[in-house]
Every structure is written in C-alpha cells, then in structure tokens.
C-alpha cells in the first residue's frame, strides 16, 4: 500500500524535518538577496530624487541666466480704481524707463446693422433663391450665405449663425411686443476697428430688405446708425492721440502693450515703466531657496550618522561628492567679468551660513546686512547684477552647464540610475534561479526521505509480523 504523506509510514515528523532543512538552506541566500535588492532600490530612489531636485533648481537658474529676463521691465499704473481699472499694461525688456500720462477716450467696437420692421420671424423674405454676402469694408474678411426660395426671417438668421466660414457675424431677431409689435433682424459683427465696417450685399433684389447695400446699388433695408458703426479704440498718451483697431495697443509706446478695459474720457492715469526690481529679487530668492533644497538633498543621501534616519544611500559616492564640490566652487567663486565690486554673491548680499546653505543675511557685514546690500545692488547697480548671473562666465551660466551634465536625460545621474536598474534586473534573474534551485532541492529531499519513510515502514511491518509470530508460540512471553 502506497504512503500517502511523508512520515506516515515511519511515524516520524519527516515533513517538518524537510521544511526545516529547506528553510535553513534558503535563509542565508534570501537574506543576501533582500539586502542587495533593498540597497539597489534605495540607491535608485536617492539618485532619482536628487535628479528631480536638480531639475527644479535648474528652472530658477534659467531665469537668471537669461539677460533679457533680468532686464525685464515693470509697468505700474497709478491713479485708477484697482478693483475697476480702465487700463492695464505690460512692458518688455526693450521698453524705455519712463513715465506717461494716459487716458482711454474710446473703446474699439464692431458694427451692428438693424433691419426695418417685419411682421414676425416667420415672414417670407424672398420667394426666389439668392445669396447674401457679408464682408468687412477693408475686404479682409468675407463669407456668403445661400438663401433658399421662400426663406423666412428665421431661416436667414439660422443660416448666418451656422455658416462654417462666418468670420464673426451673429444674427438675432428682436420682437418688440407692445400695442404695435414689430420684428427686426440684427447683424452684429465682432470685427472691431474703423476699417471693419460690416457690408451685406446680395444677388437677388428680394433680399434688399436684409442687406446694407441694395442689389441695384444704394442703401438696403439694413442700416448702421452712427453709434453702431465700427470704430477704433482711442488713447491719449502724453497728449498724443493714438488709435488701435482693437482694445490692445501694441507698441504705441515702444516695448509696451496697453489694454483698454473701458472708456474713461478725460480721466488720466500715470504709467511708470521701470526696471522690474521686485521680479528680479523674487528670482534671486527662488535661486537661493532651490539651491538650499539641493544642499538638503545631498546632505540627506550622504549622511553618515546611524542615528534616527540612518546612513544615507549614497555615502561615499564619487559622483555626489563631485557635484557638491562643483556647486560650492561656482556659487562661492568670483565672476572675472563682473563689473565693479559686483563679482561675487556676497556683494549682492547672498552668503553661506554654517550649514553650507545660502542666505540673505540680516546680520551686518562689510557694506551692511545682506538685505541692505541686495536692495542697494538692485536699485543702483541693476546691470551689474544681471551680468553677475548671465555673463558667459556668470554664476547662472556656469551652474546651468554643470547641472545639465548631471540632471539632463542621458546625463551622469541617468547613467547611475541605469546601473541600479540593471542591478535590479540581475537580482530578479538571480532570485528566479535561486527559487528554481530551492524547488529542486526540496524535491530531492522529499525523494530521499520518502524512500527512507518506505524502508522504515517495511521494517515496522516486519517487526510487527515477527512480534505477532513470536507471540503465537507456546510459552512465548509467559513465565
């Protein structure tokens, strides 16, 4: 009779013994695999986080590397309600630093044509087919609408609104109601500017009532009142009248974009175009903050203390040590092309603290506190500040080149990441091979102990048989 389970034949706990032997064989290798898998994952994660931090830092470097960004201008408007302004402005780096007196005399608008009275939207306008052509006076925009025979006022309005080539004309029907109700058709054009007056012509005299120009020439049934005519926006800048087909004035002041929000004839505001000190200061503060985040990340992955968080994943890594050294040398070094005294970050008010991080110190030093040096530099030596960062040997220029080597796709850190990804793949293969080995090892043990169990079962059976035979002999086992 076959043995159904290991140990049943012998009565010994052979199944437990096999499991213990398998566990003893597995334990050292399993521990080694887990340790190496953890190390690879932790190192990969550390390099990925460092690369991400460097990429963020590079964004703030880019802002300071571009001299045009550093030479940006602010456009500040005073003399209007900030909650309900009638003028807004932006300035490019090419805008001259100056002050202007500006008033918004008129907003730009499109034209609006209104028909004579109809009896209702279902009134038939034309018994025969024809076409309406909509165009701006300058001829730059146009489209045509096919009007079928017996088309009603509503049919025409729908055809205009649904036309795929429509450049911005909407058709609406207004019902007056009252004692003598009337229905009128209105064409409204979104094309603004005096040169964009709407013209509606036709090739069927029956459509004259819904055209601004009759088929035979002369006025049609749609009229454009003076207040509904297309017109330019008008601004007075330092007493000089300027015009724009839209409510945006591009380069009416060189390098400045003015947006008219509403008309306020005679109301004057002051526009001051100046160096964007606040914006550049914000960029410098962002640079300091993101540099310190890089320092924090490097310190985290290279810490040697075993307390609390434990050793960093990249302790002793030559790539990280090289990065740290290069960053410190660039940030703490001098810019040879720097103008005047503006050759180092210290002259700008930015210094290293005891933790190796940057700060705009509130403590007094040569030239005052860091805050005072920064404020003075931005207010009196703005071009020198820009050169400190954006010159060919400027701090931001050199940092951008350095960080790109490490953080860009295919850079040094990407190479390190690939090493650990390959290591993970190798460990996965090694684990699969080890699992197959352990399966084979367990099968071999079970085969051996199954054979042993069978032998012991036969011995037990023989022993029982002999004992029963001996017990049946006369006098065996008695006194």
UniProtKB/TrEMBL annotation:
Recorded superkingdom: Bacteria
GO biological process assignments: bacterial-type flagellum-dependent cell motility; cell adhesion
Biased composition (Polar residues): 69-87
GO cellular component, one term: bacterial-type flagellum filament cap
Span of the signal peptide: none
Entry keywords, A to Z: Bacterial flagellum, Cell projection, Cilium, Coiled coil, Flagellum, Secreted
Ranges of residues in domain Flagellar hook-associated protein 2 N-terminal: 10-110
Cellular localisation: Secreted; Bacterial flagellum
Major localisation: secreted
Record note on quaternary structure: Homopentamer.
Role this protein plays: Required for morphogenesis and for the elongation of the flagellar filament by facilitating polymerization of the flagellin monomers at the tip of growing filament. Forms a capping structure, which prevents flagellin subunits (transported through the central channel of the flagellum) from leaking out without polymerization at the distal end.
Similarity-based family: Belongs to the FliD family.
Record-given protein name: Flagellar hook-associated protein 2
Gene source species: Pseudidiomarina planktonica
Lineage, top ranks: Bacteria, Pseudomonadati, Pseudomonadota, Gammaproteobacteria, Alteromonadales
